[in-house]
Amino acid sequence: MVATDGGKYRWVAKRLSVPGLTGGIAIRHDTSMADYAVVEAVVYVAFVVRQGTVVGLEAQGETITDAVFTQLVGKAAARLDAAMG
């Protein structure tokens, strides 16, 4: 990918497995310089859909890991299920 500033970047997306999650998706995407040596940013995004309601989650930071984010998504889905009754 070539940015407007002329720099070359690499963008990689990975679907995360969230135990018990139905009607949703969780994704991790990484952006790095073209030489792939340093990851510039890691961003997590998830969407959970229930009866026409969509909950979107996004996280980014040094303390967020795949395990932490998938746990967060699982809890959000369980709470949404409980609220929908």
Give the secondary structure arrangement, pairings included.
Elements: E1 9-15, E2 24-33, E3 39-50, E4 53-60, H1 66-84
Antiparallel strand pairs: 1-2, 2-3, 3-4
Put the structure in a nutshell.
The protein has 85 residues and is of the alpha+beta class.
How does this structure look, described?
The protein is α+β, with helices and mostly antiparallel strands. Helices cover 22% and strands 44% of the residues. It has one helix spanning 66-84, and strands at residues 9-15, 24-33, 39-50, 53-60. It has a four-stranded antiparallel sheet with strand order 1-2-3-4, covered by helices on one side. The mean pLDDT is 86.
Span from first to last CA? 45 Å
**How would you classify the helix and strand content by structural class?**
alpha+beta
Largest sheet: 4 strands, antiparallel
Radius of gyration: 15 Å
The proportion of strand residues reads 35-45%
User: Treating each run of at least 4 consecutive H or I residues as one helix, how many helices?
Assistant: 1
SSE string:
EEEEH
Per DSSP E runs of 2 or more residues, the count of β-strands stands at 4
Shape: elongated
Helix content: 10-25%
pLDDT averaged over residues: 86
List low-confidence stretches: none
Strand order of the largest sheet: 1-2-3-4
